[in-house]
Amino acid sequence: MKLFFIRHGQSTNNANWENKGKQNYERSSDPPLTALGVRQAQTLANYIASNRSPAGGPKNTGEYRHNINITHLYSSLMIRAIQTGTILSESLGVPLHGLPEVHEIGGVYREIITDGQPSTTHEHGVSPGYLQEHFPAFRLHQPIEDKGWWQGGVEPVTSPLLRAKATLNLLKERHLGTNDHVAIVTHGGFFNSMARIIFDVRPEEPENRNLSTWFSFCNCAVSRIDFTNDRIIWIYHNFTNFLDDEMVTC
Questions:
Q1: What's the predicted TM-score (pTM) here?
Q2: Segments of the chain scoring below 50 in pLDDT
Q3: Total domain count for the chain?
């Protein structure tokens, strides 16, 4: 199994945070891609389509950074990830399957101040009706409730590592021991949780921000990890060479 992690394209939250700073912008609970984010996703799709390897795969280690050849494509159920995955799916002719487990840390919510008191909104994310209307080709890994896939509120701090472990187990059940090229469109925070589970980085500490390490992951960057011969090999990380300099956002 060759596992490719892809971060979604630039979202409106990403752009607003970059332009205004963390404390000075109104965060959306489930932001869409910006125009640049759409361009990033399409540029990645074009790159993958134009660098598919012939039969037999890449001939040397240097070709690994070019050869992606996606055979299976998953994404979280957050809008920015679905949009990114849909662009890849349509360009590459690979069905897009939703995996609720790979959503960004925290879930779908906003922090608000009412009468001077902080609270969080209780939202539910995209619904089956929304998906049918806006992304009719999107395939759900499992049914979601009519009101939406998210249970509401903020997830417990212990949940991301548990989700990462469950996701890795699911991928192994489906693809380990095959030559499948599996891509997951996910999020920067959750990617860090996945990397920690795969490489056993401080599993006793649930909060990524309490660690002294962090894996930077730019919008539409690609990271490849191979599972082969009872070994796990990190081939490359945060690959963005297909993007022009002015298109790179992190």
A1: 0.94
A2: none
A3: 1
